[in-house]
Amino acid sequence: MLKRPSSRRNSNHSEVNVNLVPMLDALVTMISFLMYTMAFLALTMVDTTVPTQANMEDLEKKKTPPLQLTLTVGDQGLELLSDTSRFPKITIPNLNDAQGNATLPDYEKLHQEVVELKKKFPEENKIFIQPNGETTYEVIFALIDRVKNVDQNETVILKKQDNPVDEIAKTLFGDISFTNIQGD
Predict the structure, then answer these.
(1) Which of 8, 79, 103, 171 has its CA 20 to 30 A from that of 160?
(2) What is the DSSP-derived secondary structure letter of residue 15?
(3) 20-29 long-range CB contacts below 8 Å, 24 or more apart?
(4) pLDDT 10s digits, 123-165
């Protein structure tokens, strides 16, 4: 006797249709929202190096000790100094506002002093910036700009001892490190 054929083969399969329109609407909305919010997000980057400890062998190879130029930001002004005492400490007082209160650093005077130091020490490229706890980001970025970059309308000619040909400086002190990050 033959078995009866299975009824599964002949049954009507009902297809399940998933409505993807709401999912696509939500996805498009989320993507557009993320794109709009990224347009308002401004990212900045400061290219600095991590302070390192020098080897004694490297220091002995050099004829002169490194300059170790440090820019200290204080409440009353800026100080340029060297741990190796290769030049006297330079103090730059802050500019006064209309009431006579010292407010912002004198960026132009700082730039002039840094240009003179670069001319005296053309081999040096490193500067340490030591801000205090109240120093704003705007002041730090302005200080970096003034100690790193040469103005467009000025030419800084470097006379190196090893090279008889004079060079034009593209940057002043481009290797910037921070000390005292957390403030006083």
Answers:
(1) 79
(2) P
(3) none
(4) 888 899 998 888 888 888 899 998 888 887 777 777 776 677 7
Check: CB of residue 125 under 8 Å from CB of residue 175. yes
Scanning the structure block, which residue is given the tokens 């997000």? 41
End-to-end CA distance of the chain: 100
Cβ-contact 119, 150 below 8 angstroms: no
Handedness of CA 181, 175, 152, 114 (dihedral sign): positive
Residue 9 scores a pLDDT above 70: no
One-letter amino acid at 150 equals V
For residue 71, the cross-strand partners are 80, 129
pTM of the complete model beyond 0.90: no
Q: How far apart are CA 130 and CA 178, in angstroms?
A: 6
What pLDDT is attached to residue 24?
93
Helices (H), the chain: 21-39, 56-61, 107-120, 137-148
Report residue 77 as tokens: 């002004």
- 3-state DSSP assignment of residue 18: coil
Sign for the pseudo-dihedral over CA of 122, 168, 119, 104: negative
Q: Which residues contact 134 (CB under 8 A, 6 or more apart)?
A: 75, 183
